[in-house]
Amino acid sequence: MTRRNIERYQWEKDRVHQPEEMRRQKGGTEYDTGLEVHQLQFHAEYSTVDASEEIAAIFKVQAGTKLLRRMYWTSAKTEDAPLSMSVSYLIYDAAAKNPALLDDKNEPWPGGTHHQLSTIGVEVNHVSDHVIARPPTPGEVEILRTEPGDWILSIRKISTGVNGKVVEVADAVYPADRTELVYGIKLRPWEKK
Hints:
Layout: E1 2-4, H1 5-14, H2 20-25, H3 28-33, E2 40-50, H4 53-59, E3 66-76, E4 84-91, H5 92-95, H6 112-118, E5 124-134, H7 138-144, E6 152-161, E7 166-175, E8 180-182
């Protein structure tokens, strides 16, 4: 799997205003893998948790603030091991403005998180990825079906709205031996002398 995050995030944002039929045809995993929706198996589990000190500091809220925890993993139907696994956090009270956002039975949501956030009046204008390589946790080994000694790529994605507030914190993990991350940075041209 290849993730081109800079292009992907803009692609996700641009889809917000497309008709639902268009948004249903292709999601982020399809974008990354080149597979089609019918070739994938998607799993989502939602729960509520209290914000840890670490997550609360990122959101700039009190520790213990109620969060919506969304856990996802996606597999190709022809493979046993999932392509990725992620846990996303939203401030519960913000997400509750649209009760449909609180129900994992509405997944996969056509248009993904950008569209979900748009339904509560949030526009994302900045995404920051923090990438590390590390050994997987026992839970990640079980879900991703990695082998002892395998490593994973862990991406903490922090999405900020146009108002400057963090609107989502997501931790995604990918088997390092099956994933390529591609980042491109557009540079401003030199000023002409």
